Amino acid sequence: MLLTDAAECLRVVFLGSCVLLLDLNTVAPRERVEAFHHALTDSLVPNDVAHEEPETGIHARMELWRVGGLDLFAPRNSGFEVRRTARHVRHHRSPPVVSVSLQPMGVHRAEVSGRQEFLGSDDICVFHELSPRVYGWSGDGASQSMMFDMHRLGVPVDVVVRASLQLRSSPPYDLVLRHLRGGVARSRSPEGGSRRGGSGVRHDGARTRSASLGRARRTDH
Predict the structure, then answer these.
(1) Does an H or E element contain 62, and which?
(2) pTM above 0.85, yes or no
(3) H or E segment at 143?
(4) Residues in a beta bridge with 135
């Protein structure tokens, strides 16, 4: 299953060192908007970014680290909104990714396929990079995201999008949420970073994630 497999990846694989992508405390106020945009988007993953605060009030810290073959991204910043339109979707990295995110701080806003949702600490959020979306939060907030290669996942974009709107219908949802929280916490601790587990993601991971997405999709019919 998609969510179960993500939690297992966090539990068993070796964690590499964390990379600090951005700390706006070290950036001059007049340069913070540009620095934030550069850290969050580029020519391969274009987005429109808007901030709640004027440039002098923007603050952000973004970290990136590796779990086996997965990238984990953890931003914490002031209120913002990132908008990915159909025009943006035509330009993407190779391969595109599917992200699975937790929202440990703040109330997050998301819009996919015309459906608006508010997301909190008890929600798991899934986005497909090839689907238009709006995402952000008001005031201070934070997220923790892991990115899966969409080709390895092997599920069409529309299936991922529809299933992402039905995640809570999955019977092990609460259990997986606890595993994801625990896995992220351990991966960021000194003890978690020093332990070695498996050398990579299990070979059957893409297949089990595909099955989970198919199940979530069928509950909508």
Answers:
(1) strand 60-67
(2) no
(3) strand 141-149
(4) 82, 110
